[in-house]
Amino acid sequence: xxxTVTVTGMILSAAPIGEYDKRVVILTKEKGKISAFAKGARxxxxxxxxxxxxxxxxxxxxxxxxxxxxxxxxxxxxxFMELSSDFEGAYYGFYFMEFADYYTKEYNxxxxxxxxxxxxxxxxxxxxxxxxxxxYIFELKALVINGEYPEVFRxxxxxxxxxxxxFSSKNHGLICEECKAIAADGIGVDSSTxxxxxxxxxxxxxxxxxxTVSDEVLSKLRRIMKQYVGLYVDxxxxxxxxxxxxxx
Length: 248
Description:
alpha+beta, CATH 2.40.50.140, de novo design (two linked rop proteins), three-stranded antiparallel sheet, 6 helices
């Protein structure tokens, strides 16, 4: 039976359908990732025109039909307008949206990913933390939520917790000094970088974006996350390719 439902969520992407409609992907707290149609949303006088753009976060009232959802109304609490006039910031945001889209599913409990995405866009908009750091925090925490994160508290080979370590993506995380012969891809990890990795993995989402790091630690994070994501995330993100091309 068709019914009306209200969900809290964020628009991940929007695409034109026909002459005046849109098809949007919404990451919701109640129903996971869903697709919905916004009829007439591309008409100039449509109340759905502004509320069906990426980054829009709020409550959406949907008509739930047999095979699809249709957006009836929306009450947006945050448009993240700061990103709309900032090319670099927008593409960081689009990358986070693509990443979240890749990892989430319909009817799955995606509350944590939605919360992470919202807090990440807030950090991105505030400008208080380097955007590159925001990226690595988001990537690692998204992997934590999905259960694919590296071991950062002990040696993944022998379990030692008190020896010098390297980070090895092929070995899923830390490898101690005595075992590092098995880690041909090992990246030396100093205590500050190790603490940063441990904090991101273990922290609540609300406390993630409350610290900064030195340039040296950021450089280590860059190498580690590029290596790990490159090995275990089986997708090329168009927004990231554009962003990295512009940053080079």
